[in-house]
Write a structure and sequence with these properties.
This protein is mainly alpha-helical. It has one domain. It is built from eight helices and no strands. Helix 2 packs antiparallel against helix 4 and helix 4 runs antiparallel to helix 5.
């Protein structure tokens, strides 16, 4: 494994997408700020905007950093570098996820601080973290789908299915008594149910990435 070249490829992608990630982070922070306005309509717009930015930025990274690069025939340049197909795939998996985490982390931390220091109930924090992690799980799946398939249609269809699944996840988690009953609480309640779900989401990310690496390690070409 050529760690030096993997790092260089990740930095190359970061240079291409850092401005977009900064833009998404600012939009996410702005949307979270709208949620503090004492208006049901504005709150709803802020909530929708927050979710849209988190999902939209993940789609941008997954589609452009992996699939579009292949479609634009940039692999001829990549194949001239002293790297193996596995090095290239690792740079895309960890680089893409790392680049997305910049905007994701900034938005989630900012939204958490806004909730904590505003009039909104702190009981929303566990729900925020669970939903943000679910979007991170979906991002990992979409990114890995792009790495495995190299197909824009496959990647987009995967993203659409997962976006639909997010709505189901939102309602199902809110319906759990140990979580939904504390959303309006003045303090954040991180009980065993919340930690179990967080652990399951982190495990899902590890499984998706590990499975993708295993599958790609058995292929000796860049395609």
């Amino acid at each position: 494994m050529n760690t030096f070249m993997i790092t260089k490829l990740i930095i190359k992608d970061w240079q291409l997408y850092k401005v977009f990630m900064l833009g998404y982070a600012l939009l996410g922070i702005f949307s979270a700020g709208l949620m503090t306005v004492p208006s049901g309509t504005v709150y709803y717009l802020g909530l929708v905007g927050l979710i849209t930015v988190l999902i939209g930025s993940s789609a941008h990274v997954a589609i452009n950093i992996v699939v579009t690069e292949k479609k634009e025939s940039q692999l001829s340049f990549i194949m001239g570098l002293p790297i193996t197909p596995m090095d290239y795939n690792l740079s895309k998996i960890f680089g893409g996820l790392g680049i997305y985490l910049v905007s994701w982390g900034t938005i989630v931390v900012s939204a958490s601080l806004i909730i904590n220091f505003s009039h909104m109930p702190n009981g929303m924090l566990p729900m925020l973290i669970l939903c943000a992690l679910e979007i991170l799980v979906a991002t990992s799946i979409v990114l890995c789908a792009g790495v495995l398939s190299g197909s824009i249609p496959v990647t987009i269809i995967t993203m659409i299915i997962l976006n639909m699944g997010f709505n189901l996840f939102l309602f199902e988690v809110a319906g759990i008594e140990a979580i939904g009953s504390h959303i309006e609480s003045p303090t954040a309640i991180f009980n065993s149910t919340v930690f179990t779900l967080i652990g399951a989401e982190l495990l899902a990310i590890a499984i998706v990435i590990g499975t993708t690496i295993f599958i790609k390690s058995r292929k000796a070409c860049f395609l």
